Amino acid sequence: MKFYRKNNQNDIGFGEKSYNKGSRLINSDGSFNVKRSGVPYISISDMYHTLITISWGRFIFLITAVFVLTNLFFASVYMFCGVDQITSIVKGNGWSNFWDAFYFSSQTLTTVGFGYFAPIGDHAKIIASVEAFIGVLGFALATGVLYGRFARPGTRIRYSKNALIAPYQEGSGLMFRIVNLRNNHLIELEVRVTITWLNKETNKREYDGLNLERKSINLMPLSWTIVHPIDEESPLYGKNMQQLLSTDTEIIILIKAFDESFSQIVYDKRSYRADEFVYGAKFISIIKDTGEGMVQLDIDNIDRYEEVSLNSPLVNA
Predict the structure, then answer these.
(1) Over 80: is that where the pLDDT of 115 sits?
(2) Which backbone phi and psi does 136 adopt, to 5 degrees?
(3) Secondary structure (3-state) at 114
(4) pLDDT at site 86
(5) List of E strands, the chain
(6) Cα(64)–Cα(154) distance, rounded to whole angstroms?
(7) Is 196 exposed, middle or buried, given 0-12, 13-18 or 19+ CB atoms closer than 10 A?
(8) How confident is the model at residue 314 (pLDDT cuts 50, 70, 90)?
(9) Which residues lie below 8 Å from residue 200, measured CB to CB, with a gap of 6+?
(10) Which of 118, 151, 184 is the last residue of a domain?
């Protein structure tokens, strides 16, 4: 089977090489489906980038783990030097002394110092000074990373779960819809959609850009349904669903917008594989009139669609 035309100048960066059948190029969360080897597991130069890009759950867990482990280490050092070098700690029960040392360490590390515990021995004074210095630097770095996570521009664009083959004008079109989950304003949105498939004759990937009903909009206060008309110039014209599935067809979306809050350009990406296409369906409207002079956008129903009859050049067979 051959698609409409071959134009690998539209290759978006994944190359022509055929990968494992059934694997996608871009995951549903927008990340690349690529596992890199030969990269150092821990790199000081990349640590900041890692800390501002990992999930909030992993970030909080990591910061908490570092705090606890640091205090456990210094508590062990105080125990080794002797807890009698810290006021108000009566040497005796090992576990009780250890947790007192841990509590003293947490006060020193955070530079809180409630005054109940204080170093009186020379060794304890030196250790406490070193720990306080590490604490000042550590919390300064953590504060910077925390600010970087909040200040980093990004998008929270939600895509419909499926791309639909739906009625469009006198024929049909491939369409999906998006909505901005944030209350910020995205302006001058542009979208580029590329289709890629596996050429069985050459066993190489081919790419082609899809023509869109509309490539850009000025504002997106509501949802945006992005439509590719399936006409005679479309790479999808005359192809059935089985052909799309057997050639690992995937459409890759790149969205570019200007974020008014950050005054910066932001990007977002997503892909749909052929098994995420729904033939003969149309989206149910998620825009309602509240009757109070306002428009309501029901984002929870962005994935909802209804089946319709369709006479399409994309054969459902």
Answers:
(1) no
(2) -60, -45
(3) coil
(4) 83
(5) 157-159, 163-168, 171-180, 186-199, 204-209, 216-219, 224-229, 250-259, 264-273, 277-279, 281-283, 287-289, 295-297, 305-307
(6) 25
(7) buried
(8) low
(9) 1, 246, 247
(10) 151
Residue 22: what pLDDT? 65
Question: What is the C-alpha to C-alpha distance for residues 132 and 80, in angstroms, rounded to an integer?
Answer: 19
Interval 72-98 mean pLDDT: 85
CATH number at residue 249: 2.60.40.1400
Q: Are residues 206 and 106 in the same domain?
A: no
Residues 203 and 127 both lie in one domain: no
Written as one letter, the residue type at 280 is G
Q: How far apart are CA 33 and CA 185, in angstroms?
A: 30
- How far apart, in Å, are the Cα atoms of 159 and each of 24, 255, 268, 269? 17, 11, 11, 10
**Domains held by the chain: number:** 2
The whole-number average pLDDT for the span 207-229 is: 92
Listed residue (93, 139, 91, 90) closest to 112, CA to CA: 139
Cβ count near 15 (within 10 Å): 12
By C-alpha distance, which of 136, 112, 207, 162 is closest to 305? 162
> In angstroms, how far is the first alpha carbon of the chain from the final one?
15
**Would 4 be classed as within a structural domain?**
no
Confirm whether 31 is domain-assigned: no
Domain limits at 65?
44-151
Asked if 237 contacts 4 with a C-beta cutoff of 8 angstroms, the reply is: yes
Going by pLDDT thresholds of 50, 70 and 90, the confidence category of residue 176 is: very high
In a shared domain, residues 53 and 128: yes
Residues 86 and 118 sit within 8 Å (Cβ to Cβ): yes
Shared domain for 292 and 179, answered yes or no, is yes
Strands 224-229 and 171-180: antiparallel
Q: Are residues 147 and 158 in the same domain?
A: no
